[in-house]
Amino acid sequence: MKSSDFYKRAEMLMPGGVSSPVRAIKPYPFYTVGAAGAKLVTADERELIDCCLGFGPLILGHAHPGVREAIEKQLASGWLYGTPTPLELDLAELIISDHPGLEMIRFVSSGSEATMAAIRLARGFSGKSDIVKVEGGFHGAHDAVLVKAGSGATTLGVPNSAGVLPDLVSHTRQVPFNDPEALEAMLAKNDDIAAFILEPVMGNIGLILPDDGYLAAVREITAAHDVLLIFDEVITGYRVGVGGAQVAYGVSPDLSTFGKIIGGGLPIGAFGGRRDIMEMVAPSGPVYQAGTFSGNPASLAAGLATIRYLHMHRDLYGAMEDAARAIDEAVSGRGSGTFVRLGSMFKYFFREAPPRNYLEVQECDTAAFGRFWAGMLSEGIFLPPSQFETNFLSTAHAGREIEEITAAYRKCLSE
Ligand SMILES: N[C@H](C=O)CCC(=O)O
């Protein structure tokens, strides 16, 4: 069976034929039947270099032997207990020790769950109702944050989802990224704001870097107004380095959310932060949060193996950054757009200058992106299928893969 045959079946079974909207590649998505290292194998017997990497979690590449061994070892002892496990202590200690300012953590099953709980916690702790998010920021698919949401929501033209009650989202306010004055003005005129939530590096709307001093300014402004600062590090956690963006930029939030890499490619999420805030979470406190699969042993084992490996091979961050720089240099001067990168994250925008916020990223030529993306796929490179997602490299992307990616970029941008 080929991808087109699978898709015919899928269309009848699932909305848009997919399990998550951003996968709905036109005219039909390719179906993956296997993966190893930097490559995916499709049902159409193609090998593709993967720069999507499950939308970020697979920093060590597909089927990494150390991670696989850890998962297999865990599976042999069972994969769901409904009780605490020693594994969660090991992962909690590791994540806490890597993030100054993080004193307690709670594991959940996805990044969406993590941000949903962090927002509820901020409201419960502060007794205030509203939250502020960044326009185009994506914090998962729950009601409070599906307004001007990036990722698939913007890609598919539904940044404000139907079905989300206007009453509820009237408590979600928005400011542009990289605009500390707008945040200051927002917090100055509203005294009912519990938290400001943002991705310190925007990774769900392409890749938008914080201006110099922006995150420090945000820290200062939120503290001055007694508003909690939540860093959504679901993408950046262990991606921009051990300790994520908060260590890279030297700014400590009150609460952080994690997902993706901390589960080594299996479903996971976590939120954590200051002890006095976290102690408000049930059963220590009155903010309820729960989940059958929270702290799933297989995910914890995969996450631990991944993070321990990254600890032992910190030089790999430099190697991935060098690889992204090589692509950047090769692309330079080709096409009319602009290349943005940070560590192992990179993006080519079909816009002359790097976008600094949601408004600017929407000026990109998405039709040109679509042609470019299809060209890259025919060259054997799988990029996330949206101008509004970030590309990733893994430690498995070696010289040969980088050469192929660069050659494909050069060709497709020239065309
Ligand atoms: N950008 C999203 C998550 O980070 C992409 C994943 C999805 O929507 O399926």
From TrEMBL:
Enzyme class: isomerase
Main localization category: cytoplasm
Pathway: Porphyrin-containing compound metabolism; protoporphyrin-IX biosynthesis; 5-aminolevulinate from L-glutamyl-tRNA(Glu): step 2/2
Modified residues (N6-(pyridoxal phosphate)lysine): K260
Enzyme Commission no: 5.4.3.8
Keyword Isomerase: yes
Cofactor: pyridoxal 5'-phosphate
InterPro entries: 4pyrrol_synth_GluAld_NH2Trfase, Aminotrans_3, Aminotrans_3_PPA_site, PyrdxlP-dep_Trfase, PyrdxlP-dep_Trfase_major, PyrdxlP-dep_Trfase_small
Pfam families per record: Aminotran_3 (PF00202)
Known catalytic reactions: (S)-4-amino-5-oxopentanoate = 5-aminolevulinate
Localization per record: Cytoplasm
Superkingdom classification of source: Archaea
Record keywords: Cytoplasm, Isomerase, Porphyrin biosynthesis, Pyridoxal phosphate
NCBIfam families: PRK00062.1
Stated family: Belongs to the class-III pyridoxal-phosphate-dependent aminotransferase family. HemL subfamily.
Protein name, UniProt field: Glutamate-1-semialdehyde 2,1-aminomutase
Gene source species: Methanoculleus frigidifontis
